[in-house]
Each structure stands twice: as structure tokens, then as C-alpha cells.
From TrEMBL:
UniProt name for this protein: Type II secretion system protein E
Protein family: Belongs to the GSP E family.
Domain AAA+ ATPase: 236-390
InterPro entries in the record: AAA+_ATPase, P-loop_NTPase, T2SS/T4SS_dom, T4SS_GSP_E_ATPase
One Pfam family of this chain: T2SSE
GO molecular function, one term: ATP hydrolysis activity
Gene3D superfamilies in alphabetical order: 3.30.450.380, P-loop containing nucleotide triphosphate hydrolases
Amino acid sequence: MMFGLKSVAAVPAAPAGGNPEPAVAAVPARPAAAPPADRHEALIRSETFKTIRATVFASMNMSAALMKTREQVRAGIEEIAAETALRERLDVTPAEQTLIVDEILNDMFGVGPIEPLLADESVTDILVNGPDQVYAERHGRLELTSLKFRDNTHVINVAQRIAAAVGRRVDESSPMVDARLADGSRVNVVLPPIAIRGASISIRKFSKRNITLGRMAQQGNLSPGMVAALKVASACRLNIVISGGTGSGKTTLLNALSHYIDEHERIVTIEDAAELQLQQPHVVSLETRPENTEGLGGVSQRDLVRNALRMRPDRIILGETRGPEAFDVLQAMNTGHDGSMTTVHANTPRDAITRLESMVMMANGNLPLLSIRRQIASAVHLILQVERMRDGVRRVTRITEVAGMEGDVIITQDLFAFRYDASAFQEDVKGTFESSSMRPVFATRAAYYGLEDALVEAMRP
């Protein structure tokens, strides 16, 4: 028996004297075909599964087992499962026995039945709505999977294990939490009584592949000219705001842009849940902390932005601006921290400016609107609008430059835009990325960095 497992009752020996009886088969000789979805659901909710699972957990030293790898523990669980099936004369096929072992291992080392979805690189979102509904997003489209949890308690146990792994707690007194998995995937959990139809788990996965602007151009997310312009913008240390809806690909674009930051620069990242995957060697990552049950100990994004200014950063990258920290971000952009980047939720570049105005007012309601607009016009150079379109493809639909102020109005100009072809209505969205051919206001800045010719070439239609 492997280390970490207690002894399990041995198989009954052959009777004394005479010829020994042939060994009893551990499983009936039924076809070993993989069970269909309904059989899978029936199996994990059956008494057979409960019996084997209870025996496994009763026979294991959990502390010792969890110090080992998944494959090391698998051998011991398979042995216990086979002995239990033999001793209790359970009617399970080899395929079902393998499925039971996998489910137990997923409970011990992973996130239960949705562990296969985490390993599937084509899945970008996993949405659990109670024990009976598990949705997955592939290529921008949601689909209902055949995976099930045993019951609502099983969903809650998985959610609590996820939260505990990052020092958070989620229960009836604190029914909502944001957390992350070991691979960086972002998790949101809502438990009953807030979630009426059972516990909800929402997981936003991040690609293990290193997404670059070049790869995004190959996928049709933006044009080669836009890639060239964004390379110049990042190298020129422009302050960039990425705007878009939920799941539109803002963080992915932010990661791709970060590839063009000089490796000698000191970067400070600030996030609610660590999602950014910067490749530079000199990166300091900060993460917020929620208040405890007594309402103490919380560290907000605004606190971290203020502290980051004392850390001698060359650039500050804020994962998402959603509140009063917008005031401090604009202050940082205006005080020598050029090349800073952030994301906001907005439907258009003009809406992004309006949202920034509103968030600054949340921090300081006494500031005149004209003063706020002047700060935005001075701090923000580019706004990139990202959209997940109806065909599931995420596209950079506009690259908009903030050109300054005219009176009390912020002036913007579109450098690039995606023009949808309404005459070719199909499941796939048809259209073209068009350059305005205008000379950007930041061309003078590009000349300072020796990149004016590259910018002019990128703007050619």
C-alpha cells in the first residue's frame, strides 16, 4: 500500500483445503465503453460513487496524500476503489471505475467536475449555475456541457476551496468573493441565499499561450497597420486606456501591448485579482485586499496607486479603473509616469472619457468639470476600443487619439476604425480595418523617439 494510505480490509482468502476458488472478478464483464452523459450524471450521484468515495477518504491520510502529486495518489485510489468494488460487490465497469477515480482526484487536487474544462485551452469562460448547469465558452460562443456536480453542497465545497487557496472566505455571512486559481484564472463566487437557484461560480480563464499583437493580427482582431501604430505608441510611452465591455478582451490586449515596453523600465501593476502576465524582468505586482469580517484591513486600488507613486515606477499599469482611483491614475499620468496603461468598461471612446469624468468626481466631487476634462485631455493619449462581436471574434474597433481641448470639450480623432459591411450579412462579421490617414498629434513625440517614419508608414491606407 502506498505511503499516506491506511490499510484496507483484504479480499477474503480461499477456503482451507481442496482446490482454491478462482478469484472473483473486480468488475463484471460488461463492455468497457465510456458511459454517456446521462449515465455519467447518474453514476456520480449514485450510491456506488458515494460508497467508493467515502471508503477512499476514510482510508487515506489526507495530509500525507496532498503532499504528493496527482499521479502518485492515483495508484492508491485505484487500488482502494478496486478493493471496495470487490468487497461490496458493486456493479461497475472499468470505464466507470476510472471515471470515479478521476472525479475523486478532481475533488482532491482540482475544482471538481469542471477540472477538464480548465485543462481545455479552447475554453475561455466556465460558468456554473448550481449543480446541474455548467456552461463553457469556446471561440466566443457559450455552450451547455454534460458536466454535473453531485449536489449544491458539492458546488459550495469547491467554491470554498478556491477561496481558501488565496486566503479568502465565502459562506452565508460573506456570500460573494473574487479569487483566482493557481494558473491565474479569475473566479467569482456567489452563494445562497444571494444566489437563489444554487451556488454560482464564474471562471475567466487566460490563455497559456503568449498572445502578441502579431498573433492577434493573424486572427483578424486588428490590422497590420494598427499593430505597427500600437508598437510605436507603446515605445513612445503614450498613456493608453483600453475600453470595452465585459469579456471583450481588454486584459489580453493590455498583455499584448506590454511586450513593447523596454525591459529596462520598472513597472508596477495594480489589480483586484492578478491577471496580467508581463514578460519584462523588472515588474512589481500589487493586489488589493478586501476587508475582514470586522470591516478592517482592506487595501483598495486607490491605496495601491498612491503607494505605487512612492515606489519609483517608470510605468504604472492598472488592471481596471472602476472607481475613485481614476483621480490618482490621472495624477500619475500627469506627473512623469508616461506610458501608463489601464482599462475601463465603456461602449465607445467617448463613453470612456465620460466614465473617467464620473469616476474622478467620485474621488473629489468639488473639482470643476472643466478642470477634470483638462486633466483627462492632458493625461490620456490613446483610447483603444475593443468589442466582442456577434460572431464571437474580439476586434479592436477603434484607435482614438485624444487631441486636446477646444473650449470645454475634449477633442478626439479616430486614427483607425473597423467598418462593418452591412451588405454581407452572415454568421461571420465582414468588414475592413481602415486608416484615417491623418497625422497623429503624437507624431512630434514619435520623432523624439526616432519613430516618426514608422508612424507615418503605419498610417498609410
